[in-house]
TrEMBL record:
This is Phosphatidic acid phosphatase type 2/haloperoxidase domain-containing protein. Residues 77-189 form the Phosphatidic acid phosphatase type 2/haloperoxidase domain. The chain crosses the membrane at residues 48-69, 75-100, 146-166, 173-195. InterPro entries: PAP2/HPO, PAP2/HPO_sf. Pfam families: PAP2 (PF01569). Keywords: Membrane, Transmembrane, Transmembrane helix. Gene3D superfamilies: Phosphatidic acid phosphatase type 2/haloperoxidase (1.20.144.10).
Length: 219
């Protein structure tokens, strides 16, 4: 069974090899901040700041902190749904990366923070999928009003572009990440958990039950 999977993977690699070479060539030309000595190497610190702003651990930690301190059920509903979106993104990206196993661009510098072994693979871009998923949710739910909605879109665009400029991903990785993020956002919005459902989820965890108690009111 393992040999058949390996054979199929090799066949697919051979079939898409011409496209892969084109993708690598274009990516190499666009990796303008891949190192301090690159054409726009002075922008690298800004690109890395964008990278950190979309890190999965950063967003998961932020969601947990906001859930812990918030007693507003409507706000908790939003955070639980965002948390679910983040977990969905992490799982799907990890599964696809482990299946495809496409390496990162040759110009990539191995200086990413808080990474795991699966992050050695590039397809699809988890930062692209995560930023697009969150941006669409923020836009549709009008989180932060009109200004916040459009800012989230601009942030996602900047994240996607930065992945290529930093040489972290091939163009194809980012495009795949964008498509994956759109699917994730659609799925999360389709099953959007209600206030009652999110309260049930929170009470399923003893630490939240102990903290919130049984008499929480919508603020």
């Amino acid at each position: 069974m393992g040999e058949k999977k390996l054979s199929l993977r090799r066949q697919l690699q051979q079939k898409f090899k011409p496209y892969d070479e084109i993708d690598k060539t274009i990516t190499k030309q666009l990796a303008l901040c891949a190192s301090p000595s690159s054409v726009y190497g002075e922008w690298r610190s800004y690109m890395i700041s964008l990278e950190i702003s979309c890190h999965g651990l950063s967003w998961l930690s932020l969601c947990c902190i906001m859930l812990w301190f918030s007693q507003n059920q409507t706000f908790q509903q939003l955070i639980v749904n965002l948390f679910f979106a983040l977990i969905l993104d992490i799982v799907l990206v990890a599964v696809i990366k482990a299946t495809v196993r496409r390496g990162r661009p040759s110009g990539n510098r191995n200086d990413m923070k808080f990474t795991f072994s699966i992050d050695n693979y590039a397809f699809p871009s988890g930062h692209a999928s995560r930023s697009v998923c969150l941006a669409v949710i923020f836009y549709v739910q009008r989180i932060g009003g009109i200004l916040g909605s459009y800012f989230s879109i601009a942030w996602a665009v900047a994240i996607c572009i930065s992945r290529i400029l930093l040489g972290r991903h091939h163009v194809g990785d980012v495009l795949a990440g964008i498509l994956l993020g759109l699917f994730e956002a659609w799925f999360v919005l389709f099953i959007w958990f209600s206030v009652d459902t999110t309260q049930y989820i929170l009470r399923s965890f003893s630490m939240f039950q102990k903290y919130f108690g049984d008499d929480m009111d919508v603020v």
